[in-house]
């Protein structure tokens, strides 16, 4: 996860070209072997068991290892072993920047020093980032969106965005990058956008918007459905709506378990978001291997 946030810094400061960065992150993705594949390779689980756990992840907001232990397919020691094997297969973005001669060692040292200084990271915070504990950093990003809207209580928005990013990694693309940009400008123009929307109501009331250009919408649908989709049609719309409904369904389960019952209205597909509405949203612009999109939340 450190790779994504260092990538954000490089991109937002124009230190590396967007296409080069996406290419490097894709290379990292290919080197990052999923736990299920490692479990099969290590003869700890069968393909059928791995598939079953993957399906369970659509119903429960839990990591692969947690669910595999609950099903008695793996022991805690097995999960630790697989996680260590996964780390051995991982390549840090900093190493890729050197290997591809984007930076010299001296330039990389300067960039990393400036990155840590700008974000006021202590050594401990940086170590937590390397371990993937990005909650505090993500909360800061969300807070900067909430303050101008005079939103006091923000925990549910943190929780929602973190859940969305986890599910995006699981089902769509391994390397989402949060961009430091206004959502409308981020998509370059408001024409030819498609919006998947769903209202959440109960203890918390909000409307979720997933905004993207037509090409990204089609690729999003293909990745989630694991089918070849070439145009915006009923299948494409149903696939994106299903992802949003799946994510929000997991959110309702999480909130209900905390004593905050909420419910969902059916998702809808729109062709635009009104400018006035867009200005009142918490906007999270995201860069991915399939294109740009904006996750937006409208507090009710």
UniProtKB/TrEMBL annotation:
Highest taxon, organism lineage: Bacteria
Instruction: Enumerate the Gene Ontology biological process terms.
Output: chemotaxis
Keywords carried by this UniProt record: Chemotaxis
Q: Which InterPro entries match?
A: CheC-like_sf (IPR028976)
Protein name (database record): Chemotaxis phosphatase CheX
Tell me the classification of the organism that encodes this protein: Bacteria, Bacillati, Bacillota, Clostridia, Peptostreptococcales
């Amino acid at each position: 996860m450190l790779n994504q946030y260092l990538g954000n810094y490089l991109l937002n400061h124009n230190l590396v070209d967007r296409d080069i960065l996406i290419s490097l992150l894709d290379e990292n993705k290919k080197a990052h072997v999923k736990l299920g594949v490692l479990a099969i390779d290590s003869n700890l689980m069968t393909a059928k068991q791995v598939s079953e756990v993957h399906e369970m992840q659509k119903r429960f907001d839990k990591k692969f290892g947690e669910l595999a232990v609950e099903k008695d397919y793996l022991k805690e020691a097995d999960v630790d072993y697989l996680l260590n094997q996964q780390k051995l297969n991982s390549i840090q973005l900093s190493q890729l920047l050197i290997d591809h001669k984007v930076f010299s060692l001296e330039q990389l040292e300067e960039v990393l020093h400036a990155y840590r200084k700008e974000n006021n990271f202590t050594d401990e915070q940086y170590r937590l980032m390397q371990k993937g504990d990005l909650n505090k950093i993500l909360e800061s990003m969300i807070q900067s969106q909430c303050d101008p809207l005079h939103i006091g209580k923000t925990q549910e928005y943190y929780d929602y965005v973190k859940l969305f990013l986890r599910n995006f990694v699981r089902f769509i693309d391994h390397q989402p990058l949060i961009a430091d940009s206004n959502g409308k400008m981020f998509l370059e123009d408001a024409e030819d956008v498609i919006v998947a929307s769903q209202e959440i109501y109960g203890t918390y009331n909000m409307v979720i918007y997933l905004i993207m250009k037509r090409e990204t919408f089609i690729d999003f649908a293909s990745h989630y459905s694991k089918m070849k989709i070439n145009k915006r049609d009923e299948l494409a719309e149903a696939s994106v709506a299903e992802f949003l409904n799946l994510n929000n369904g997991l959110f309702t389960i999480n909130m209900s378990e905390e004593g905050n019952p909420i419910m969902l209205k059916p998702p809808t597909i729109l062709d635009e978001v009104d400018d006035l509405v867009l200005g009142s949203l918490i906007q999270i612009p995201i860069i991915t291997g399939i294109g740009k999109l904006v996750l937006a939340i409208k507090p009710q």
